Amino acid sequence: MKKLLPLLCTLALAGCQQTLTLPSATVLASDSLGGLASSVAAHASVEAVAPLAFVLTPESAGFLQALTTTAEPQRIALANRLKADSTITSAITNWSRAGAAGRLAVLQRVATIEGEVMHCQVPTVKEEASTTAPSGMLAFFQAESGGLGEITIYSNAIASGGGYLALSMVIHEMRHAVQYQLVSGDQTKLTADEKTLATGYRTAWETVNALGGESKLSYGDYVHLAVEFDAFQAGNQVATLMSGGTFDQRGSGFVDTQYVTAGTPNLDLTTMLGNFTTSELTGAVNLAQAKAEPARSPVVSRQRPVVTRGGRAGR
Prior knowledge:
Elements: H1 4-10, H2 44-47, H3 61-83, H4 86-93, H5 99-117, E1 124-128, E2 139-142, E3 150-154, H6 155-161, H7 163-184, H8 192-211, H9 219-223, H10 226-243, H11 278-292
Parallel strand pairs: 1-3
Antiparallel strand pairs: 2-3
């Protein structure tokens, strides 16, 4: 996001000149952390500042419904396409023997198929072999004014992470390309659900700009930005379906971006939004996360776009 966010402001998106103020760093009474460290947990006091930018708010119900009706069928279709591709399935299951060129080629192939399924023009997918990846980072998407942007993959990092992690990563980053094209494209050609999604993505990017950068957010609030929640879900759901449930999602977002074998989320926010306040939602999600990953470090994430905080990548 480091280079993506200023670019979005050049697209004349409303609100980029705003300066929002986060609550005090002190945990507020509305912030039920569920046993998580404040740097890891989601905060009701933060998400209430811009309720359309985050998904743990009642105001995000329309966005989550649009994800369910639009993005989820695409994820399932993508998993089916990938499972039917013997070149991809062979490389993923024999990841350590694929070689650097083979790994890059298969991830480029995954990106191409995702573009077809999700109606997205595919950005360049390239590798970075000469630079050590920032702590925990596998790849990033970088937008480009007037172009498709590019996905950069740290080849040394993905070599040791396993095939399903690499698969999840490139799907995550391609989802950011989908988001960017929805926001920057002709809004008159979008369906109602696509317009709802584009509004959520746009608002999330604007909000991070107005807050002074992603470094202002805890990991839990970062994960629950509309753009990141969608991308985490996409990578996790497809990799879970592809692997038959063997993909280890721990550390990949929060429990509400992770999936069981059948593709059902471990914690389904769409069943909760009508009955809970933002404070109750963040508290419930934090508690579920603490129970699911009690030993989780706040610096284990591995997939995300470039952002202002090095090493706090998105898996």
